[in-house]
Amino acid sequence: MKLLALLSLLILMLQEARTASLSKEEREGDPYAILHLGDYVLSLDNYDEVIDPSNYDELTDYGDQLPQVKGTSLASLTRTRFTQSTEAARTLPSNPTTARPPALGLLAAPANHGLPTCLICVCLGSSVYCDDADLETIPPLPQTTAYLYARFNRISHIQAGDFKGLTKLKRIDLSGNSISSIDDKALRLLPALRDLILPENKLVALPALPTSIEVLDVRMNRLQSSGIQPEAFRALEKLQFLYLADNLLDAIPPSLPLSLRSLHLQNNMIETMQRDAFCDTEEHRHTRRPLEDIRLDGNPINLSLFPSAYFCLPRLPTGRFV
Q1: Where would one find the signal peptide in this protein (predicted)?
Q2: How far is 254 from 274, CA to CA, in rounded Å?
Q3: Which of 222, 148, 217 is nearest to 181 (CA)?
Q4: Are residues 128 and 145 in contact, defined by beta-carbon separation less than 8 angstroms?
Q5: Could you count the other beta carbons within 10 Å of the beta carbon of residue 274?
C-alpha cells in the first residue's frame, strides 16, 4: 500500500512539472490551461474570487477597446442598407410635384385626372370605354381608336382638335353629358365616322358633319330649328337614321337625303310643314321607299291638313290626324 501511495505521489509531481514547462503556444491551445490576465492568475478554481458577478459596479467598461468584428452579420447588413436608403431618401426633391415623370408613350397622354387615358378608361383593341369616368373634356385617344364611348360624364364642349388625326374613328357615343357646343372643325374631317350618338346633352345647334355619317342621334337636347343649317343634311348621302326627338324644333328640317330610312321628330314644337318636306312636288312619280319610319307624335301639328306632303311615302307618318 505504501509503495502504491509513493507511486501515485510521484506521478502527480511529474504532471505538475510538465504543466510548468508547457510553452505559451501549448497553453493557449489547451482550453483548461491557466489563463494570465494582468496580475491575476485566473483558473476555474478561483474564478469567483477574481470577479464577483453580483457587483456590476466593478465591471470594466471597455468601450472602444472592443475588438472590431470583420465578419458581417445579418443585423449589421440590414442596418447598413437602412442607413443607405434613408440617405438616398433625403436626396429626393423636397417638392415631388415639380419633378416631371418620364414619357410613357402614345397612350400616356394625361386625361383630366393627370393619368394616362387607358388607366382612366378601358382600352380594348380599337375601342375606348370612358363611361362614368368624371371627365370634363375629351381625353387624348390612341390613333387606332375606332369606337369611343364616353357616356355619363361632365363634358361640356367639343374642341376643334379633340379628334384630330383619328382617321379610323367610326363611332362616337357621348350620351348623358352636358355638351352645349361642338366646334365645326371637330367632326367634319373624320372620314370614317358613321355613328354620332349625342342624346341627353344641351346642344342648341348642330355642327358641320362628315359625309360618311349614317346614324345621327341628337335626342333630348335643346336643339332649335335655327340651329340647323338649311343645307345641313343635303350632302349626307349615306344618312339612314336621324333621331331628333325631344327637342325644341318648330319645323321639319329641310333637304332630307334620299338615303333616309327613319326620321324621329316626336315631342317637339312642330305646328306645320311644307308641301315638299318629304316629296318632290314637281315629280309626282317620285317615291321614297326607304323612308318607312316617320314619327311626329307629341307635336301640335294636325297631319290631316297636309295630305299632299305624303304622296311619295310608302306609309303615313305617326302622329295626330284629327
Answers
A1: 1-19
A2: 9
A3: 222
A4: yes
A5: 12
Amino acid at 264: H
DSSP for 230-275 reads: TTTTTT-TT--EEE--SSB--SPPSS--TT--EEE--SS------T
Tell me whether strands 157-158 and 181-182 are parallel, antiparallel or unpaired: parallel
Span 243-272, average pLDDT: 96
Task: Burial-class residue 242 by CB neighbours within 10 Å (0-12, 13-18, 19+).
Answer: buried
Q: How far apart are the first and last CA of the chain?
A: 152
Per-chain mean pLDDT for the chain? 78
For residue 111, what pLDDT is reported?
53
Whether residue 29 has pLDDT greater than 60: no
Q: Take residue 96 and report the three cell numbers written for it.
A: 415631388
Instruction: Return the amino acid letter for 131.
Output: D
